[in-house]
Amino acid sequence: MTVKTIDGEKFVACVECGHDVHLYSMWASECVCGVEYNGFGQQLASRKQWDMEEDF
Fold this sequence. Notes:
Number of domains: 1
Number of helices: 0
Number of strands: 5
Oligomer: single chain
Shape: globular
Strand order of the largest sheet: 1-2-3
């Protein structure tokens, strides 16, 4: 994973489809194919795997 900076904006190439993803958010930026990345360019798990409703 390589983050590119163009005119002060960060981008990463999507591992699934190769499109450049604009990393506009530190939380989650989405590619046109649906894969999401955090502000550091790391691929995030599918939102289906985000278990925010689980009781501990």
